[in-house]
Design a protein that fits this description.
2 domains; ABC transporter family G domain-containing protein; mainly alpha; 6 helices; ABCG_transporters; two-stranded antiparallel sheet; ABCG_dom; 65% helix
């Protein structure tokens, strides 16, 4: 599945993706890898709008559907949405406080920093360098 701006631009097998994009006028250049080409298309605002419209047209014309591309009608409001009600209940049941979230994010950040030895070394060298520079500046004034 390829998405852009929160909307589907293509859904299907990767082997059919090149054929689909070529059929809607976006042929992959010879010197591009398909993945890079798709990312370039999906990141451009104007092109992504075109891709979203063409995907809808493709589906309306009876394009190849998969079990994952059923037409789902959106609920008129959040209060009428079954999915929204389920998610709100799930968040109430399993949600965490701001303190818990902050603690978990801090732990993850510390673990990532300790795993990256180059980061620790470069940070220590940078701190030492600036300490020496500031020390030399104020040594002259003392």
């Amino acid at each position: 599945m390829l998405m852009t701006q929160g909307r589907v631009a293509y859904h299907g097998t990767s082997s059919n993706a090149l054929d689909y994009f070529e059929s809607i006028g976006f042929r992959c250049p010879d010197k591009y890898t398909p993945t890079d080409y798709f990312m370039t298309l999906l990141q451009d605002y104007v092109t992504s709008k075109v891709l979203i419209k063409r995907w809808r047209v493709y589906l309306k014309k009876g394009g190849q559907r998969t079990p994952h591309t059923p037409v789902v009608r959106l609920a008129p409001s959040k209060d009428e949405s079954v999915a929204a009600k389920y998610l709100e209940g799930y968040i109430r049941k399993f949600g965490s406080s701001s303190l818990v979230q902050f603690t978990e994010l801090t732990k993850r950040c510390v673990v990532e920093m300790t795993r990256d030895r180059l980061y620790i070394f470069s940070h220590a060298v940078q701190s030492l360098f600036f300490a020496i520079v500031v020390g030399l500046i104020f040594r002259e004034h003392a």
